[in-house]
Specification:
The protein is an alpha+beta fold. It has helices at residues 3-10, 56-74, 92-108, 162-170, 178-189, 195-200, 215-226, 234-237, 250-253, 260-269, 285-294; strands spanning 35-45, 77-87, 112-120, 124-136, 139-140, 153-157, 207-210, 229-233, 244-245, 248-249, 276-280, 299-306, 310-314, 320-321. α2 runs parallel beside α3 and α4 (162-170) crosses α5. The structure holds adenosine-5'-diphosphate and magnesium ion (MG).
Amino acid sequence: MGEFDLIARYFKRPARRAALGIGDDCALLQPAPGTQLAISCDMLVQGRHFFADVNPRSLGHKALAVNLSDLAACGAKPLAFTLALALPEVNEPWLTDFAGGLFELADAHNCELVGGDTTAGPLNICITVFGEVPLVNGRSQALLRSGARAGDDLYVSGTLGDARLALNALQGKLSVPAPILLAARQRLERPSPRVALGQALRGIASAAIDLSDGLMGDLGHILESSQIGATVQVDTLVQSIACYVDSTPAGIQGGIDLSLAQWRTLALAGGDDYELLFTASPSQRAAVAAAAQASQTPVRCVGQIDASPGLRLLDRQGQVLPNQYASFDHFA
Ligand code: ADP
Ligand code: MG
C-alpha cells in the first residue's frame, strides 16, 4: 500500500466543520466570528513516551488526548487537528486500531482531522491541535499561566500519581495488585483531557496549566509566569485511585509497598496525569464548584497563592516538608 492509499484508507474522512479538509495543499479552517485560534503541538516518540508494544488503540487515544489537554488548560474548545506520522512499516491491523482510538476521542470532542504528513521512519506521532477561545469586548478569554494573584486558591482536578504508579509497575520497579494496576494503567494509557472543565473555568480561573510533567514543575511554570509563590497542602494531593481503595490507603490495605514519602512523590512529581491545575480568587469559590459540577469533574483546593516567591510544601499537621521533588525534564 502506498502513502496516498494509506492516508485515504485510514485517515481521510469527509470534512464536517472545516471549510476544506484532507486532500489539498492546505486545510481551511473558519474560526467563528469573535473568537481566537488556540494552537498547540505535542509529539510522542517510541521509547520516550510509550513502549513499542503499547496497544495501538490506546496510543491513538493518548496522542490526541495530550493535545486536547493543552486546549483544556487554555479554556479552548477543540476544533481540528493535524497528524504527522512516521511509520516503520504499513501494518494494517495496527493502523486500524490506531485510527480507531484516535477518531473515537476526536469524535467525542467534535475535533476534526484536517491534514497531516506521512513518512517512513521510526514510529513518531506529532499532532497539532486547533481550538477556539471567545473574545469578550476584544479581550481574550483564554486561561493563561500568568494570571495567578496572591491570595488565590490553588485547585487540582481529579487525582494525581496513578500514571506514574502504573509506569513504575510496568517497568518492574514496584509490585501492584492486578485490579489497581488495571485502573492505574488506564490513567497512563488512556488519559481523559479535562476539556469541559477548562471551558467552564473561563472567566473564573485566574491561571491554569495542564499537568503533564508533574505538579512541582508545572506549578513552577505558573509561579514563574505570574511572579508569585505558593503553599501546597501535600497530603490533600495524595489521593490517587491506587492509593485509596474505598478511602483506605492501599499502601496498607492493598499490598502496595510504598511509604507516605513515596506516595507524596507520585502525586507531586509523577507526571502524565493530564489533570488541570488552576488558581481562582476566593470570591470565585461558588463559581469553581459550579464549573466542576457542570463539567462533572472532581476538583479540590490544595493550597494557596502567596505574595512571597517560592513554593512551600506542608504536611497534614502544617509542618514544612523539604522540597525534594523534581519534575520530568527531557534534558535534565
Ligand atoms: P504535500 O505533498 O502537500 O505535503 P501530502 O502528499 O503530504 O501533501 O499529503 C496529501 C494530503 O493528505 C494533504 O492534504 C495532507 O494534509 C494529508 N495527509 C497526509 N498525511 C496525513 C495524515 N497522517 N493524516 C491526515 N492527513 C494527512
Ligand atoms: Mg507531505
